[in-house]
């Protein structure tokens, strides 16, 4: 019985202020170089990437909430007047046009 070969991709995140995380997905490698096997492999890869994106978004949203919580601890005035949608849209990016 031949062992099934697997391909693997890993995403890792680290930050000085948050816990690191890593996501690893294994995908069966194509058993032959046929178009059908390659198509099946690419379909599985696409699904795995979509799943990883969902996990990454959840993890980063959790970390954004942790950052906001730390920023407002002991400073209730900091929590007032924050546009949550704008904060999430611009999280981790330099915002242009702020004075």
TrEMBL record:
InterPro entries: EKC/KEOPS_Gon7 (IPR014849). Residues 55-99 are annotated as: Disordered. GO terms for cellular component: chromosome, telomeric region; nucleus. It is found in: Chromosome, Telomere; Nucleus. Component of the EKC/KEOPS complex composed of at least BUD32, CGI121, GON7, KAE1 and PCC1; the whole complex dimerizes. Residues 56-71 have a biased composition (Basic and acidic residues). Residues 84-99 have a biased composition (Acidic residues). It holds the Pfam family Gon7. This is EKC/KEOPS complex subunit GON7. The keyword Transcription applies. Its main location: nucleus. Component of the EKC/KEOPS complex that is required for the formation of a threonylcarbamoyl group on adenosine at position 37 (t(6)A37) in tRNAs that read codons beginning with adenine. The complex is probably involved in the transfer of the threonylcarbamoyl moiety of threonylcarbamoyl-AMP (TC-AMP) to the N6 group of A37. GON7 likely plays a supporting role to the catalytic subunit KAE1 in the complex. The EKC/KEOPS complex also promotes both telomere uncapping and telomere elongation. The complex is required for efficient recruitment of transcriptional coactivators. One of its GO terms (biological process) is tRNA processing. Keywords: Activator, Chromosome, Nucleus, Telomere, Transcription, Transcription regulation, tRNA processing. It comes from Clonostachys rhizophaga. Belongs to the GON7 family.
């Amino acid at each position: 019985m031949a062992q099934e070969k697997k391909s693997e991709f890993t995403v890792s995140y680290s930050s000085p202020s948050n816990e690191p995380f890593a996501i690893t997905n294994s995908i069966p490698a194509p058993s032959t170089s046929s178009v059908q096997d390659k198509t099946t492999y690419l379909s599985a890869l696409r699904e795995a990437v979509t799943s990883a994106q969902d996990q990454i978004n959840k993890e980063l949203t959790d970390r954004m909430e942790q950052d906001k919580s730390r920023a407002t601890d002991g400073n209730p005035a900091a929590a007032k007047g924050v546009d949550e949608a704008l904060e999430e849209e611009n999280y981790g990016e330099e915002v242009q046009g702020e004075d």
